[in-house]
UniProtKB/TrEMBL annotation:
Keyword list, A-Z: Coiled coil, Metal-binding, Zinc, Zinc-finger
Pfam entry (one): zf-CCCH_tandem
C3H1-type Zn finger ranges: 426-454
Residue stretches of biased makeup (Low complexity): 381-395
Superkingdom of this protein's organism: Eukaryota
Molecular function via GO: zinc ion binding
Keyword Zinc included in the entry's annotation: yes
Coiled-coil segments on the chain, per record: 55-89
Organism this protein belongs to: Beauveria bassiana D1-5
Protein name: C3H1-type domain-containing protein
Residue stretches of biased makeup (Pro residues): 350-371
Segments forming domain C3H1-type: 426-454
Length: 522
């Protein structure tokens, strides 16, 4: 009988549980791995979509850039071709001068070039008007324009432009007119004492977009003539400049300039003309052979103008000694009051110390006619009495001294009898300086002086002399050329201040001045 084999031992409960735990751990790890893989796949899909979108945009931009580049290359090639044609056309102009215009653009087929050449055709018709204001305004310009201030300047600009335009009204092309007036405003203000010259200059500049009134300052080195000469040479170099009109004074030194210009550039003779006014050209200017142009009569005076001191002479006179002058007695004659200028009161040169000259009984005032507060213009009356009135220049002497930037105040010629009558008014019977010299008094009824009165021109001069006895608060820094007050002591005679109660400071007297009354502080 065979022996029975032993049976395998049954797995214990603990081993089974251990396997279960290990299986559960493995499943948890597998689930975590699956989630990680799913997350990575989602992120990868999102990033891939974004990159594909950017790639598509870049491809579109690249296509646009290539198209734009090709278009710009075509435009550049076309523009270079046009520029080459224009360079050749410009060389043709330089060689051909100002000859015929037909066929100039025949070889240019581009519409853009044709349009450009049409524009050039207009620019070719530039006409320049260069005016020496220091001379022309003094000698030939209508005083009425100056007297009207801003409106007069605008009217003068429009009249000048219209007159120049009519000179070429029969031409087929439009004319562009450019005008420039160069002048020493301060000097002109002295020559046109009493007129609103700065307002006139403003109106002239505002009258047209291509019109300018330029202040070149004062001083010998700043005169208008060099500016006119340099501007003429400059514009002659412009091939589009067809004509230059020069408005110059008869006393200027332009003849030498024109002779030199025509000698070095013979073609300039056909492009430069001199404007003729009321004053005939000097023999020197005529000898240059320059063309002349006479503009409308309403622009420049047609009669012989009043002799005025040129602006540069006015400026230079500040540092010179004026002739001492005592009383001037008139002895009859037929002087016309309309032909007198305030500039007669400015000395020029050094005449004898004392002189007596015959003056007309109806001697006019050295100050221009002025408008009273009531709107009426007062002129100097013609004395009808047989006795000859005496006139005196105040101050009687101009010292050889320059008080500062403004210079010496211009003398005023007064009627001695009228001056005495005005000085005799006392206290509340005195005539108000501000009211009669500058317009309605700002104090109105609060002023203690006389307003209700109509002084004649000689009384106005007397009031002006008395107002000069009061110092201007701005002194030599005063920029108002119509200022009624004094800017230095007007009572100097033979080195002595003759005013016993002079209100001016010591530095407002010439060096070494002696005083009739010693004041405190001196």
């Amino acid at each position: 009988m065979s022996k029975a084999l032993p049976s395998k031992p049954a797995p214990s409960q603990d081993n089974i549980l251990a396997f279960v735990h290990r299986y559960n751990d493995l499943m948890r790890v597998r689930d975590s791995t699956d989630k990680l893989i799913e997350g990575l796949e989602r992120a990868l899909e999102q990033e891939t979509g974004r990159l594909q979108g950017e790639l598509h945009s870049c491809q579109i931009d690249l296509a646009d850039a290539n198209a734009s580049r090709r278009e710009l290359e075509q435009k550049l090639s076309h523009t270079e071709s046009e520029m080459l044609s224009l360079y050749k056309e410009n060389d043709t102009y330089k060689v051909g001068g100002s000859g015929g215009d037909s066929g100039r653009c025949a070889h240019l087929g581009s519409d853009a070039v044709a349009s450009f050449c049409a524009t050039c055709q207009i620019i070719e018709c530039l006409r320049y008007v260069l005016i020496d204001g220091d001379g022309l305004l003094c000698w030939q310009f209508q005083d009425a324009w100056i007297r009207q201030g801003v409106e007069g300047g605008k009217k003068a600009a429009n009249a000048l432009r219209s007159s120049v335009a009519r000179q070429w009204a029969d031409k087929s092309r439009d004319t562009q007119i450019v005008a420039k007036v160069v002048a020493d405003w301060a000097g002109l203000a002295r020559s046109f004492r009493g007129y609103d010259l700065r307002d006139f200059a403003t109106g002239f500049t505002q009258g047209h977009v291509a019109f300018d009134f330029v202040d070149i300052g004062s001083g010998k080195e700043r005169r208008a003539e060099p500016k006119i000469r340099d501007n003429t040479r400059w514009h002659l170099r412009n091939q589009n400049c067809r004509q230059i009109l020069l408005g110059v004074a008869p006393e200027g030194s332009y003849s030498g300039f024109l002779e030199d210009l025509f000698r070095t550039d013979p073609a300039a003779r056909d492009r430069v003309s001199i404007i003729e006014g009321g004053v005939a050209l000097t023999a020197d200017l005529k000898a240059t052979g320059a063309n002349t142009t006479r503009l409308d009569r309403d622009l420049f005076r047609a009669d012989k103008p009043v002799e005025r001191i040129p602006v540069h002479a006015v400026s230079a006179a500040v540092g010179r000694t004026a002739s001492p002058s005592g009383s001037v007695t008139s002895s009859g004659g037929g002087a016309n009051s309309s032909t007198f200028s305030y500039a007669h009161a400015i000395t020029n040169g050094t005449p004898p110390p004392t002189m007596s000259i015959p003056l007309a009984p109806n001697k006019p005032s050295p100050r221009p006619p002025r408008t009273s507060p009531h709107g009426t213009t007062t002129n100097i009356p013609s004395p009808s009495s047989p006795s000859s009135p005496q006139y005196q220049k105040i101050p009687p002497q101009q010292p050889d001294w320059n008080p500062g930037a403004r210079g010496l105040d211009e003398p005023i010629i007064v009627n001695v009898a009228v001056m005495d009558a005005v000085k005799k008014r006392k206290d509340t019977d005195k005539l108000c300086n501000n009211h009669f010299l500058r317009g309605p008094c700002a104090k109105g009824d609060g002023c203690n002086f006389v307003h209700v009165y109509k002084p004649n021109a000689e009384e106005i001069n007397a009031i002006a002399v008395l107002a000069r006895q009061n110092p201007c608060t701005h002194g030599q820094d005063c920029e108002n050329w119509e200022c009624i007050y004094g800017h230095h002591c007007p009572s100097i005679r033979d080195g002595v201040c003759t005013h016993p109660y002079c209100k001016f400071d010591e530095d407002q007297h010439p060096p070494g001045t002696k005083f009739t009354l010693v004041k405190s502080g001196r």
